[in-house]
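hi! just following up on the protien thing from before. the input was this:
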Amino acid sequence: MPPATAMGVAAHLGIELAEYDFRIRTFIPAYDEMLNAAAALVPPHARTLVDLGTGTGALAARCLQQAPAARIIGIDADADILALAARRLGTRAVLIRGSFLRSSLPSCDAAVASFALHHVRTKTAKAKLYSRIYAALRPGGVFVSVDCHPSSNPAQARRQLRAWKSHLLRSYAPAQAAALLESWSHEDVYVPLESELRLMEQVNFAVEVLWRKGAFAVLMGKRAKRGPSSLVRGLRLP
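and the predicted 3d structure came back as:
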């Protein structure tokens, strides 16, 4: 899906920012189902949550319903979209403008991300991020990510792409749908599911695939209740 760029999400997409929550559903199949599945994985007793690439706060709002005593720390590079998140989340959110690759991650009970980590360009950068997330989580904490993770099997990946295009065709003309997919394929990095799981496992996450449909998945990594976090040094990248 389209990235949050320096010019801002709305300008990049050529839409009014107020349209974002509607338009994202025309871009991504089963969007609400995925976010609901992700939020359900947040521990109800959680006190501090971190949302990487919080956007308009759609996932954050669901997480706060799941954990009624929690506050959320949302990180996003787009100031305009953070203003929407602030209105949605109110006083239970602390919103930070910046890159989640560089911003400090506070100690937390859960960290979440929805359609944000495909902006990480390399596996080395992704591995470093996962190590930082693991270190920030309290023992027994969870990391939940919603994103596009196609199959490593080329034939299956093509079928998944056709299914994604079929969803786009419900809202866009064929040429528009093809142009959107072409644009995103150059801007985003969709790591195959098996490779993404290995990246998470290599920083000691106990990983599960909690939801899977087509190219899209909800992944959960759990930090051990005891033991030190992994260091990035020495990782074997796939």
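The longest strand covers residues 137-148.
Strands lie at 48-52, 71-76, 93-97, 108-114, 137-148, 206-213, 216-222.
cheers
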